[in-house]
Amino acid sequence: MRPTMMLRALNQQFIGILGDTANAVTKKQPPPPPAVSRKPAFIDAFLYKMKKNRNLLMNKTIWSRRSTILPEFVDSTVKIYNGKTTVRCKITEGKVGHKFGEFALTRKRKIKEQANAKNVKQLKKKK
Fold first, then answer.
1. How far lies 100's CA from each of 17, 49, 86, 122, in Å?
2. Cα separation, 67 vs 101, whole angstroms
3. How far apart are CA 115 and CA 110, in angstroms?
4. In the beta sheet, which residues pair with residue 86?
5. What is this structure's pTM?
6. How far is CA 33 from CA 36, 93, 109, in A?
7. 19, 48, 59, 73: which has the highest count of C-beta atoms within 10 A?
8. What is the DSSP letter of 60?
9. How many Å apart are CA 57 and CA 49, to the nearest integer?
């Protein structure tokens, strides 16, 4: 039997007899993990100025798509630039914490053509 194993067995016996863990040899516990530090939310300088006065934000065009939506902006309507045009967006509580750019799509959606009677007749004539 190894000496460390004997010490463990003896410590368990002492703990059982005395009911005291002060005499027992204890393992060093690893230090607790450090608290997770998060980066602060990015807010553009002009939006930070408007944080206190919401009336300045109403119907304002926002070019900073990377800025975070703050709780102070709730119930206001803004225009977000998507690279070509501006998109109106009403800010609700569910959008807080997201980025402005998430709500102004930069690409057009593909619209699938539905096969209706008119399209079917045109396709048959071409053949």
1. 66, 17, 12, 44
2. 8
3. 16
4. 81
5. 0.57
6. 9, 33, 46
7. 73
8. -
9. 10
- Tell me the pLDDT tens digit for each residue of 35-73: 777 788 888 988 888 888 878 888 889 999 999 999 998
Phi, psi dihedral angles at 100 (to 5 degrees): -60, -35
Tokens of 53: 């006065």
Distance (Å, whole) CA 78 – CA 89: 5
How many Å apart are CA 70 and CA 50, to the nearest integer?
A: 11
Q: Is-contact 96 68, C-beta < 8 A?
A: no
Measured in Å, how far apart are the chain's first and last C-alpha atoms?
91
Residues 31 and 5: beta-carbon distance below 8 Å? no
pLDDT in tens, 75-127: 989 999 999 999 999 999 999 999 999 999 988 888 776 656 566 666 666 65
Cα–Cα distance for residue pair 20/13, rounded to 1 Å: 11
Query: 3-state class of 33 per DSSP?
Result: coil
Output the six-digit token pair for 18.
Answer: 């005395």
Q: CA 110, 111, 114, 118 torsion: positive or negative?
A: negative
